[in-house]
Amino acid sequence: MPRQKLIATESDVSVEVETEDNAETADRGLEEESSEVVACHKTARRGHGRSASKVKEKKPQEVQARRSKVKEKRKVLRDQCKEEDGQNEDVPKRSNNHRNKRTKTEQRGDFKRKTKDEGDEERSNISPQEGGTELRVKIKTKGAKKLKKREEKVETSRALSRFSSESEELSEEESEEQKEVLTQEELEILKEAVEEKKKLIANLRAKPWPMKKKLITLRESQEFVEKYEGALGKGKGRKFYAYKVLMVKKWMKFQRDFENFKTACIPWEMKIKEIESHFGSSVASYFIFLRWMYGMNMILFGLTFGLVMVPEALMGRPYGSVPRKTVPRSEQASAMDFAVLWDFGGYAQYSVLFYGYYSDQRAVGWLKFRMPLSYFLVGVGTVAYSYMVVIRTMARNANRDGGGDDTSFNFSWKMFTSWDYLIGNPETADNKFASITTNFKESIVEEQESHKDENIHLTWFLRVLANFLVLCCLAGSGYLIYFVVRRSQKFALEGLENYGWWERNEVNMVMSLLGMFCPMLFDVISSLENYHPRIALQWQLGRIFALFLGNLYTFIIALMDEINLKRKEEEVVKYNMTIWEASLYNGTAADNATTAPVDPADVPRGPCWETMVGQEFVRLIVSDTMTTYITLLIGDFLRAVFVRFFNYCWCWDLEYGFPSYSEFDVSGNVLGLIFNQGMIWMGAFYAPCLPALNVLRLHVSMYLQCWAVMCCNVPQERVFKASGSNNFYMAMLLVILFLSTLPAIYTIVSVPPSFDCGPFSGKNRMYDVIQETLQSDFPAWFGKVFNYASNPGLVLPFILVMVLAIYYLQSTSKTYKAANLDLKKKLQTQNEENKKKNKKAALKAEAELEEARNAAVSKQERNVCSQQSRMETRTFCEGVPPPGDV
Amino acid sequence: MGNKQTIFTDEQLDAYQDCTFFTRKEILRLHGRYHELAPHLVPMDYTNNPDVKLPSALIVNMPELKENPFRNRIVESFSEDGLGNLSFNDFVDMFSVLSETAPKELKAIYAFKIYDFNTDNFICKEDLEKTLNKLTREELTPEEVNLVCEKAIEETDMDGDNKLSYDDFENMISRAPDFLR
């Protein structure tokens, strides 16, 4: 059986050899090897008096045969390692060592006979031939497996040749000896094969094969690994190896289970997929962004809730024990009213939700939890974590879209990548078809007349006008907000009780209304400009961004004014307080020192500007959320209901006519989300409840918007894919993050905290808490080291080094970019050259063809026997590209 | 789908997980979908690998593919016989490649197959014309189609043989900003 197989394969080998990938390297290795082998031959045979010339003469054939065998063998080994179990010598199993030996010798006998049959002229000198054949067989089996192990192999072959030439009956011992050596190196080979198989298994899913082939390959390689993994290693190492393999297997299993679990944990996956199939990837991208935001806020919420709110609520002093934790006497009557609570006054104000409630005890509870320090660090950690997440996501997104900046493949990209494979809704598909068609038409028109002669002056005038109008809008809205905030301060000074609902909520309402109507105004204005829709969208986004930002900053500036007012008020209160304390002391000391202490509700207290800031932000978030939901309900749901049911009894078609159904506004919604997040970042330090509120809001938004989209929106007319613009949103988020942390950090660093509320009361600055902790909780040397480290003499050089590093990295990236561009250019020129060359060749071929044709024609004219020449021409034609292609 | 043991053995599920980008649950869900397409043809018990093939007409009408202009090509290029008849293995394979976790290179290979209408391993002009007509529902005039196809070939064809080989295609598609699917 083995003999037949080998013979069969051997005849095929010469054909297959060429297809081997590394045939060349194998050949080179073999040649080197063969020269060495020849040397061995010589040394081995010198004693027997064989002539070297004979060996040399034999060499080419030998090498040829061996080479082909080697390749065949390698191939066979790769595919059939496990089938060769019983008959071949690849199996290092010691249990059936003996049997193996037998088969091997038998097999070698086979080979001997075979080669004898083959080589006719070598039949005369049988004994050296036998040695040579044995050698050949040996080398074949080994060289097949690994050519890199040449030295070892040569050693074996030397030993082998010595054995074989010395005596024939030693064959038993000889194979025993071989076995030892072989198992050693075969182990290596086998190990490699097993590794290879493992790698194959790991990469199988990315192979472009049909599933059947994949499954078969998987099963085979798994069996192979199963079988030989246990055989690897020996003695002590063997046990360890088996253990390792077992552990790796267990670990893989665990990883897979964990992966399964993780994907099962991703919320709203099905919902988003459904929306994706109905509205395309752009709308889905909004929901994915929303989910991402939700995850981030969950972490922020966990931080503030677990490290700040819960410890204070459980371990801090209870409500009513100190003035800052008690509702003042004057407010107590209305402290539980819903209107007050809705405004986050009354009991809500004096609770863990706001900064003012936290006490300045250095350590709370039996855990000795460092409350002020924790508060400070959580505030810093929130910001740091947000930066980290945003930047990491941006970097990952940047990696993913691999530089699609050049527009050299305009048409091809449009052709091959414009379809959104996620669309599963007929209406969306219709829109998509329409948009692709217009897209193509546009680019065709662009291509045909790249320099359109329009009235450039008019366009420019209109664009400048539009920008002027937008600027006016922005300035107006900024002023309006400033005006409203100042007015509300006046109201607040005079007492809010005298005013109605509108005066109370004026600021928030005005901001929400501006955020609602200004974008519409911008949309109208942008129709003046006559930009391409994509550019128009970017302008629109930029303008809305500027509007929101301006509003937010005006709001902050107004808040700053208010903070300053409150601080002045605080001075007055402080002064009054001393008088009050003195009078209290005077009044009570006269009677006795043990009178009941003053009720904390009666103690006069400062305005606590931090709580005021927190309240403002919370109110803003709540009113913003309410506006969003109400617009959603009225603008989308009621409109859809109206259009749907009044369409039966209306003069014109409502569904396709004027009101129609609303579209889902991705960019507006994303911007809203981003600004909402900005407010969270800004206010979270003064109102620890903000992340919790935001999580709630996002959660509700998810369900509400999913429902609204599926039930009352129609797919956009301008369906565009959003995968590329993801980083655009992220970049905006980063800008907002930076801008919103600025004021927060400014207040933390430069405004002294209130004297009678919050965890930092009594300190000069909020960050003094670090100093205090260092002094009292750490050993003295640590404080010293910290002091040295924070010395300007050290910090400044450090910053300098960082700046230099940034500069260095930036310049290297610039050079890389330049090199990249250069290479690209080179590639392009090369391509063009190639094209030219091919064209030239084609032209030449065409000319030749023409010539041949002419010749044929003339021949035809001249000759009667034109049959032959026509045939020639036709065959010639086939070898040359048709002239139409040039 | 409550008793998963009756559909696949654990080994089968593991094997499928090794060969695709899916989790166990998703594979079971896929089987559910496959079963739904033809409940009388597809058995619930897949432990002994029954040889069942569904005709392309059934697959193409899945909501995931129904609106896709290239649905027939997709199904054809994943089927073993090239006619669009999918066994469950082919079915899983198709969704694995189309899933979002599949690497770009793999997708490019299959995308090339999909756009290669006449399966001659080159995207020639006829293929491009067909692609374009499917994309625009034949709303462009023949001259426009011709122009676009010529432009596309001119842009992408690197070796000047007036048709796109896989290398050309891969080079072009790997730089595309929104080849993500």
Characterization of this structure:
The complex is a heterodimer of chains A (886) and B (181). Chain A is an all-alpha fold. Chain A contains 28 helices and two strands. Chain A has a two-stranded parallel sheet. In chain A, helix 20 (533-591) packs across helix 21 (609-646) and helix 21 packs antiparallel against helix 22. The longest helix of chain A has 71 residues, at 792-862. Chain A is globular. The relative contact order of chain A is 0.06. The model of chain B is unreliable at 1-5 (pLDDT under 50). The two termini of chain B are 29 Å apart. Chain B is elongated, with a radius of gyration of 19 Å. Chain B contains ten helices and two strands, in the order ααβαααβααααα. Helices cover 55% and strands 2% of the residues of chain B. Chain B has helices at residues 10-19, 24-37, 56-60, 63-66, 71-78, 88-98, 104-115, 125-136, 142-156, 166-174, and strands at residues 53-54, 86-87. In chain B, helix 5 (71-78) packs across helix 7 and helix 7 packs across helix 10. Chain B has a two-stranded antiparallel sheet with strand order 1-2. With 181 residues, chain B is an all-alpha fold. Classes of the chains: A mainly alpha (886), B mainly alpha (181). Chains A and B meet through helix 8, helix 9, helix 15, helix 16 and helix 27 of A and helix 1, helix 2, helix 4, helix 6 and helix 7 of B.
**Structural class of the secondary structure composition of chain A?**
mainly alpha
- The average pLDDT score of chain B comes to 78
Strand order of the largest sheet of chain A: 1-2
Q: Can you count the helices of chain A?
A: 28
Shape of chain B: elongated
The fraction of residues in strands of chain A falls at under 5%
Helix content of chain B: 55-70%
